[in-house]
Specification:
Order of helices and strands: EEEEEEEEEEEEEEEHH
CATH class: Mainly Beta
CATH topology: Jelly Rolls
Number of helices: 2
Radius of gyration: 16 Å
CATH superfamily: Jelly Rolls
Shape: globular
Helix content: 10-25%
Amino acid sequence: MEKQNLNIAKEKTVSENYFRGEVVIREVLNEESSLEQEMYHVLFKNGAITNIHYHESEQILICTNGIGIVGLLCNDTNLIEFKTSNIESIKILNEDDVVCIPKNRLHFHGSLNKNDFSHIAIRRKHIIDNNTERYASTIWEIDLLNNLLKYDNSKINMTRLRIWEIINSEIQKCID
């Protein structure tokens, strides 16, 4: 059994394609400390937010500081033809709130406006797929768009810009 501290656990390097803004991720539980779960303490600085993504296992978020946001997209969301109706719900998150994001559901989360926000993120490391245990992946917006748009960076960038204009507009409606 190992002891960890949320605020000084080892910092994890992340791809800039996964977040909008500055994020600090501390890996609290890893392969050495837990066989079944992974746990991160995530600090979203100055309005940072995740890009759209999904996990192959549920993700539990426990809000630890500040005011944040989580958005869940509809099951049939087409990122290329993204529109307001693809957003199923957006919730404002306060300190001590807990949310469970269903597996395989596109979503985003992070800080609200220009504030700092932090949460603990917990999810299962492995899933059973065709009677074989394997790592439960996270699939990001950039991966989905690369597949759909055949790595055409111009089209990908335009699509991402349009998606986030819509999402930011809907977030603004939640706080007005």
